[in-house]
Every structure is written in structure tokens, then in C-alpha cells.
Amino acid sequence: xxxxxxxxxxxxxxxxxxxxxxxxxxxxxxxxxxxxxxxxxxxxxxxxxxxxxxxxxxxxxxxxxxxxxxxxxxxxxxxxxxxxxxxxxxxxxxxxxxxxxxxxxxxxxxxxxxxxxxxxxxxxxxxxxxxxxxxxxxxxxxxxxxxxxxxxxxxxxxxxxxxxxxxxxxxxxxxxxxxxxxxxxxxxxxxxxxxxxxxxxxxxxxxxxxxxxxxxxxxxxxxxxxxxxxxxxxxxxxxxxxxxxxxxxxxxxxxxxxxxxxxxxxxxxxxxxxxxxxxxxxxxxxxxxxxxxxxxxxxxxxxxxxxxxxxxxxxxxxxxxxxxxxxxxxxxxxxxxxxxxxxxxxxxxxxxxxxxxxxxxxxxxx
Length: 366
What we know:
Elements: H1 2-6, E1 19-22, E2 41-46, H2 52-67, E3 71-76, H3 81-94, E4 98-102, H4 110-118, E5 122-126, E6 137-141, H5 143-157, E7 161-167, H6 173-192, E8 195-202, H7 208-222, E9 228-230, H8 234-246, E10 255-258, H9 262-270, E11 275-278, H10 281-297, H11 301-304, E12 311-316, E13 321-327, E14 330-332, H12 337-344, H13 350-353
Parallel strand pairs: 2-3, 2-4, 4-5, 5-6, 6-13, 7-8, 7-9, 9-10, 10-11
Antiparallel strand pairs: 1-3, 11-14, 12-13
């Protein structure tokens, strides 16, 4: 529980588990701490750490807070939406200035916002929307654009034929938006008869095992006569590739995901995954942190976030138009993998991405 951990919060730096507290140092080595940030306490609720990206992002939050003398109290709900609600109540009882929440259940997380407001705390939804609530702010990627990017990769490679369509977690509003983007690209081809959807399934919890099962069933139903797979993230793409490989189809059937997970980047350079929609995590994370600081200090939130990180817009959550900061996404395939993922952003190393590729086929380092 957070109460037990908080008692030793200064000694809990970097501690992992269901909850921990990180207290900041005297400032950033690169440019000094954010002016006036000392003494701020940010509550962070993460739904799960089963996907690679969330572990990265927790470390980013910890680093920002450490660099800027901010206390961070974090909780991980381990894919339990009810647990997330109680954890957020614990954070509010413990005493925080602002709450950043990556919700597990877009519809079911509304009580978190209500409890926070009762405690006088504003809520920033992180990457995943909180629907039908008086949510204060939202920091995210353009999920419709993600879906369009994924589908474009696949349609360009296979403009006609039988498709398997693997959607994300139906309980996550982002999955609905990704599917909307995918549909924007697919529908004209479906209407013309060029593309036939032989299976369309949601993957609960973005679970790769769900994707594996759905793909196996679809391949069996279609007698392996499948020309493409639309997957909604790199995890589900990995499950689908496993099913394709069992039928000797890996590398022959186009498939794309999102997140630029290491395993996906490896599949891309090896030729079994067509591409991934890269969502640069550092700009998203920095925007959320800067917004949280501005909110905690009572300053203008829109002025508190560096404009080069993305853009402000309003997104409706079913109850209100929510001030939302969106960070752009990028399409990654084997042709720009080195330039963007490795060289520009250092998201993965050359050795990590190309570990299964003969060294004489590695890109020349520029």
C-alpha cells in the first residue's frame, strides 16, 4: 500500500511494485530544475506494465521529478480497473497536488475524476481518455492518425484480398479511435470489393494471446487464404505473426502495429512485420510533466507546455470538451528504422534492433 511506502518515501527512489514514491534531487544536470517546481507532489496512476512502453514511461516520470525536485507518488494497477480506482483514492488521501492517470477502463475511470475534484485535485488523463467525466486535461497521441498509419502500411502492400482485422481493447477509448482511423483507410476498399474482412475481432486488454487465437481461427476459417492483417499495436501484431509463422506465412502477409516495441522493430528489419506507428514517448511524457507542474502552480496550463512538443485541441469525452495536448506520430519501416528509432531518438540501439540480422546486412552508421 502507498501508506507504508510513503513513510519511507525518500528511501524509496526507483522502487517498483504496486506503489512507490520518488523524491526529487536538487535539480537537473541539463538546464536546472523548472522554476518553482520544488515542493510539488504529483500522483501517478499507471494501469499496467505488461507492455514495454509503460516501464519506459514510469522511468521518464521518475527522472523528470528527480531532476526538478518534485515528489512523485506512483501506483500500478496491474490490469485491475477496480484496483486503480482504490489506488487513486489512496494517492488523494496521501496528499498530492495533481493526478496523472493512465486509465485502464475509459468508461469506468470517471469516479477517479470525481474523487479527485472532491479533494480539490485536478486530473490529467495520460494517453488514455477518461470518458463521461469532468476531466480537466488530456495528453495523448492522435489515435485516429495511428490507425490510419497502420492501415496505410498494409493497404499499400496488399490493396486487395482477404484481411484479418485485429482491434485493440474495446474497454480502451484509444482502441476505438485507432479502429476509426483504420476504417477511414479500409472502408473505400471494402466498399469497392477489393478487400474482404474475413475476421474482425477485439483483443481484450491488448493481449497478444488474444490476437494469436483470433488469427489462428481466422486462418483456419479462410483456409490460409489471407493477404493481410490489420493489428492495432505491436503486441497484437506479435501474436498474429506467431500464428502466421505456424502456417509458413510470416513475412508473406503484411502486418503493422504501433509503439515501436523492440520485438516489433526486430521483426520489421527481419521482414516479418511491415511497419510500426512510432509514438515518441519522451515528448508525450515531458508534455504531461510540464502540464502537471503548471496546474500544481496554478499557472496557465497552455503556456506551461512547450509548444514544439505538439499542439492543443479540444476532444469530447461524452460529457465535455476537454483541453487536450496531442503529440504527432511517425510511420516506421525498415527504410527509416535506423535514422529515426536508432540514430535520432536512441529509442533502441543498433545492436538491439539488428541482433538477429547478419552483420553484413546492418545499416552503415552515419
